[in-house]
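Box 3.1 A note on notation
Throughout this textbook, protein chains are presented in two layers. The first layer is the amino acid sequence; the second is a token string describing backbone geometry. Keep the layers aligned when reading.
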Amino acid sequence: MTPTLRLEPLHAPGDEWLALRGALWPDTPGREHEAEMAAFVTEPQRYAQWLARAGDGQAIGLAEASIRSDYVTGCETSPVAFLEGLYVAPGWRRRGVARALVDEAARWGAAQGCRELASDALLENSTSHAVHRALGFAETERTVAFVRALAAAPGAADVRLRTATAADAATLAVLGAQVFLETYAPAGVRASLAAEVLAQHAPAVVAARLADPAVQFVVAERAGHLLGFAEARCPAPPPLAAAGPGPATEIVRLYVQRAQQRRGLGRRLLQAALDEAARRGDALAWLTAWEGNGQALAFYAHLGWRDIGAVDYAFGDERYGNRVLVHRLR
């Protein structure tokens, strides 16, 4: 008997979504689930997810889909809608819940301009194979995946952290402008962005911050080249009361060159700034991250930072929503 179903698109992380993800992928730590959920909802044109609810409102199923532009095994077109995950609670299986979720994913994919909906399953998961066939998927091919570990790139372990000095002002100014534009100007530089870069990253402006005793810079350096930096300010009361009591440090900027990212530098720089805040006796650290920067939001969520609300950041006549994130130090 087909139950009364309601499919609900997911636009924000929540406990029900997390619980169903945990049931589907039980070996993945909860913190990783939360980081992925936070990243997915910031890119609705690339990711979509739905809950299936029974007539009494109980969450009984989950589907997650994405748009893949790289080659997808067995497909003849690109981009392709891809069914990343499908789960139905045990007591609700064989009752049309999976079909309803997959049909919704197919409609979403078609609306994005895709002509194919793809999926995959482990070779030994014969139950999943049968479910896919029942839902209208055709098997295309079977593969075995391989991986080979690679040695670290030369010099990757030679990065050292140090406190910035006045002599670093020009280098930090150029590095800050570079990372800012890499992040916020993928479509090019307009007048408001240029003004913001000059206001925040001109050498004289950076030199003034280096001379301010309330500001601390930690830089990552390799062979005389700066790769990234963390800039902190203390004391810096948080903008929202939900952060909690106690003296606080603001992580004003955490910048790493794009070519140096995903090598642990951001984590090292951030930890160095937090260690210094803890030595000062601060109770917490806080920062703001642009709500459109899914990579940054996922990074902080993975490290346990707590989202406590939103504030606006303005430059010129433009306003941008930012999430306020908090990390307790004691």
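Residues 169-184 form the longest helix (16 residues). The domain at 156-328 is CATH 3.40.630.30 (Aminopeptidase).
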